[in-house]
Amino acid sequence: MHNGTRLAAVDLGSNSFRLEIGRVDHGQIHRSEYFKETVRLGNGLDSARNLTHEAMQRGWDALARFGERLAGFEPSQVRAVATQTLREARNREEFLLRARTVLGFGIDVIPGREEARLIYQGVAHLLPRNETADRERRLVVDIGGRSTEMIIGSGLQAHTTESYRVGSVAWSMKHFADGQFTPGAFRIAEIAAKAVMDDALTNYTRDQWDTAYGASGTIGAVGDLVAAAGGRPGVVTRADLDWLQERLLKAGSADRLRLDGLREDRKPVIGGGLSVLRALFDLLAIDEMQVAQGALRHGVLYELLERDDGVADLRDATVERLAQRFAAEPAQARRVADTAAALFVQLAPAARGGAGSRAERALRKLHWAARLHEVGMHISHSDYHKHGAYILDNVDVPGFAVNETHALSQLVLGHRGKLRKVEASMADETFTAQLLAIRLAVILCHARRDPEPDVLALAPAGARGFTVRARQDWAERYPQSAHLLREEVLAWQKTSWQLALHLD
């Protein structure tokens, strides 16, 4: 990526939305602009886990302002990610449909462990890089609004990642709902936080890391308060947490709290955040924690940079590991993937050479889905496409957003059998073209051997149709493949799309 290129990351957190814009300079990203809006989306989840209209409107308004600032950016220069609140919200698609429009860019809902991995990337890239630092075993913690991420890593590599459903907004609403600070409320909040995170005692024990770092949100706010009170800048200790709790108890409530360095938007969630942080110090035997400068949004920026610069995309390695884990036959996976890609390019020529274009991204997703189309056979040959779709919707896949893996799962689900089960996704013409390509590829490769090259010619036909042409002599030489192709035409007749077959 050229020096001076601008990149932007949007973080849709449970408490705040953030926009970070940076410029590329010899492989590093230097901040040029930063915007933060306190949205408190997490406060808008009702008892049925639906976002209220008021909370959604706050989010839309903030994203509209971000979208105005991002005018002129290319899709390859921007990535927006959403975290725990939108992982939980049952009506998240209602929010995201308008959110993507007002922002002007796609929004990825990322799984908890993927959020943790990106947080680590952000922290690691902003720490000093040298041989000693790269050997350091790091514990990185990020207490967000509705989730807390923990990572152990070294250098730029995260080794252990986890996400827990406990955070400053959620714990403040649950244990300090009326804004009152009492010893009993803190005691119960800390016990509850430990109960959620107690399995960290196994995976994050003190002998597994050398230095603890705290990223963003709560830990950054506590670090600011400690420094403003004359403590060591950039460090939080157990004594500091005791001091801060005493100050909160002395104030008695959030509205009476007066502390140098405490922003107004942090007051309503400081009680919940502090109780979670104190629980972590106890659980993991932390004596002091360094306040890290990097955060989720920085990890998103550096991943954008690396993907554009041709650094191996983590998603490729993830797909390969997943295929191996579920014993998908490599030769057949490659065969179907290559055939599906060749067919899709006939429908979307821009997919070849249009790096970063929607068509090129669709081609990559089709290739991944084809490589994974048989992972369900590890469970059962019967309905293996359904098992494969379930796996992709529920397995941890580093590098992928929830919406990305769901798109792959729908292609795997729809690659054989009736089309009705993926009818909702077929409203998208790009998905439908991908689906046709993978279904035809499976037909051509059904004998588990390489098909003849260029045996089928595909073309769009009107607004909602396709034509497929094959040679008559091919149909005569491969009667089973030709039969499956005619059956495919019949399957499409039961949808709102049309597929016409011509044998020349």
TrEMBL record:
One annotated GO molecular function: exopolyphosphatase activity
Protein name as annotated: Exopolyphosphatase
InterPro entries in alphabetical order: ATPase_NBD, GppA/Ppx_hydrolase, Ppx_GppA_C, Ppx_GppA_N, PyroPPase_GppA_Ppx
Residues covered by the Ppx/GppA phosphatase C-terminal domain: 315-483
Coiled-coil ranges (or none): none
Taxonomic superkingdom: Bacteria
GO biological process: polyphosphate catabolic process
Alphabetically ordered keywords of this record: Hydrolase
Domain Ppx/GppA phosphatase N-terminal span(s) in chain numbering: 27-307
